[in-house]
Amino acid sequence: MIDQEMIIADIIARHPETLPVFKQYNLDCYECQIADLETLGHGAGVHKVSIDQLLVSLNSALNK
Asked: CA-CA-CA-CA torsion for 23, 42, 44, 19, nearest 10 degrees?
């Protein structure tokens, strides 16, 4: 299960099936060097994305 304290780059590396979700929310994290250090919660806040909606979408991608 993905949570807001996880590092973005770790999520993408462990769960590449989440990449379309990041793209859907216009989060180009896969191209950003800060993704190696930034938590999902922080990144969502910076980009003004609802962390609750993002978490639902990301975790749904894991269950497909």
From this structure: 20
Residues in a beta bridge with 7: 39
- pLDDT of 12-23, one tens digit each? 999 999 999 999
Task: Tell me the three state secondary structure of residue 39.
Answer: strand
What is the C-alpha to C-alpha distance for residues 33 and 1, in angstroms, rounded to an integer?
A: 24
Sorted by where each begins, the domain ranges of the chain are: 8-62
- Whole-model pTM? 0.92
Alpha-carbon gap, residue 38 to 64, rounded angstroms: 26
Calculate ∠ Cα 40-45-48, nearest 5°: 120
HSE-CB for 12 with a 13 A CA cutoff: 21
Residue with tokens 């930034």: 38
